């Protein structure tokens, strides 16, 4: 198994974290950003988007981070991480897509300007707007944790992975955050997981 991608990418972290959780033996190939590779003809033959991550597993080539996480969970995971009940899977799946479709855009405005732009190049208005929107969305996530301790339900699972990768940056960046006790408790539980520490808690760059 090979996984291409730079470890400071949120989407790559999803895949590396999932692979660690299910105990896979894989080769991680840094790619994208300063590592290059993604523009080469060989890589484009695998992923014509020229993006990371990309997975190669026993003849299967797969891109799109959430799709890779679902594949690894279905093929190599066991309940409760990979639910056998379609209803439980759908409930976790919902949070995967919510993170990628609803949360990722305002978070990018915040993260990109705060972490990846120099102070003189920052778009302060976009950063402020992104921070406000993220705070509202994190409030929704906090409310959801009133019913269950994890976004996957009663146990940790695939539904926690996308938001968990973003949560590391959210709780690490020097920003004002609303006090959300359930979300904070969830993040503490994630931070105790060895797979999370290895795959996600790497420098923010």
TrEMBL record:
The answer on whether this UniProt entry bears the keyword tRNA-binding reads no
Tell me the ranges covered by the GST C-terminal domain, including all copies. Answer: 85-205
Q: Where does the GST N-terminal domain lie?
A: 1-80
GO MF terms listed in the record are:
glutathione transferase activity
Cite the InterPro entries for this sequence: Glutathione-S-Trfase_C-like, Glutathione-S-Trfase_C_sf, Glutathione_S-Trfase, Glutathione_S-Trfase_N, Thioredoxin-like_sf
UniProt enzyme class = transferase
> Which UniProt keywords are listed?
Transferase
EC number(s) stated in the UniProt entry for this protein: 2.5.1.18
Keyword Transcription in the entry? The reply is no
Q: Which PROSITE patterns match?
A: GST_CTER, GST_NTER
Which domain of life does the UniProt lineage start with?
Answer: Bacteria
Tell me the protein's name: Glutathione S-transferase
- Which species does this protein come from? Rhodobium gokarnense
């Amino acid at each position: 198994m090979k996984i291409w991608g730079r470890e400071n990418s949120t989407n790559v972290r999803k895949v590396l974290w999932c692979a660690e959780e299910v105990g896979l033996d894989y080769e991680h190939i840094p790619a994208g950003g300063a590592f290059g590779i993604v523009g080469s003809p060989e890589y484009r033959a695998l992923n014509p988007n020229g993006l990371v991550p990309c997975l190669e597993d026993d003849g299967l080539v797969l891109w799109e981070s959430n799709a890779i996480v679902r594949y690894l969970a279905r093929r190599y995971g066991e309940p409760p991480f990979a639910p056998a009940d379609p209803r439980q899977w759908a409930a976790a799946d919902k949070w995967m897509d919510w993170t990628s479709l609803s949360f990722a855009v305002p978070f990018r405005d915040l993260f990109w300007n705060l972490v990846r732009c120099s102070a003189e190049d920052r778009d302060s208005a976009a950063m402020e707007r992104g921070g406000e929107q993220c705070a509202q969305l994190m409030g929704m996530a906090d409310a959801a944790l009133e019913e269950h301790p994890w976004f996957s339900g009663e146990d940790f699972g695939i539904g926690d992975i996308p938001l968990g990768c973003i949560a590391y940056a959210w709780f690490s960046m020097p920003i004002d955050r609303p006090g959300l006790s359930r979300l904070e408790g969830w993040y503490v539980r994630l931070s105790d997981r060895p797979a999370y520490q290895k795959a996600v808690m790497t420098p923010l760059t």
